[in-house]
């Protein structure tokens, strides 16, 4: 059974968006005295924090579940075999989420009308997110 979009979105917010935001604000405050440095420095801080959070997500993956997937009772599986993906494959999938981002966010909403419930990253990585009972 495909995972509900709202649960998927919550897992992404928990494992990527929230930690990236908090970490970049903390680093900006330490380095520049304000939580949102402007210009190139602020962009680099956010990009590096995003990369770091993606790596942590991949390293925390067990049986196709990052820590946030476990909390939301979701599992990322291979679209052909249905087997859980590895941490390295989760890392590649996290990197593929750049396609969801550069499409102005449309890729994140794609599961709402896609027959397999896949984001652009899922299509690239050949994965699906299912609800784990």
From TrEMBL:
Presence of keyword Membrane: yes
Membrane topology, as annotated: Multi-pass membrane protein
Assigned keywords, A-Z: Cell membrane, Membrane, Transmembrane, Transmembrane helix
Subcellular locations according to the entry: Cell membrane
RDD domain sequence ranges: 3-126
A Pfam match: RDD
Protein origin, superkingdom: Bacteria
Main localization (coarse): membrane
TM ranges: 12-33, 39-60
GO CC, alphabetical: plasma membrane
Protein name as it appears in the record: RDD domain-containing protein
Natural source organism: Bifidobacterium apri
């Amino acid at each position: 059974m495909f995972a509900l979009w709202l649960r998927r979105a919550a897992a992404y917010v928990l494992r990527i968006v929230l930690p990236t935001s908090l970490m970049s604000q903390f680093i900006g405050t330490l380095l520049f005295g304000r939580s949102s440095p402007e210009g190139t420095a602020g962009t680099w801080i956010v990009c590096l924090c995003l990369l770091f959070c993606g790596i942590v997500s991949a390293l925390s993956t067990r049986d196709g579940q990052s820590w946030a997937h476990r909390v939301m009772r979701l599992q990322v599986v291979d679209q052909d075999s249905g087997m859980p993906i590895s941490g390295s494959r989760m890392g590649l999938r996290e990197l593929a989420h750049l396609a969801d981002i550069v499409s102005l966010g449309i890729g994140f909403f794609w599961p709402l009308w896609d027959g397999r419930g896949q984001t652009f990253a899922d299509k690239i990585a050949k994965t699906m997110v299912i609800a784990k009972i």
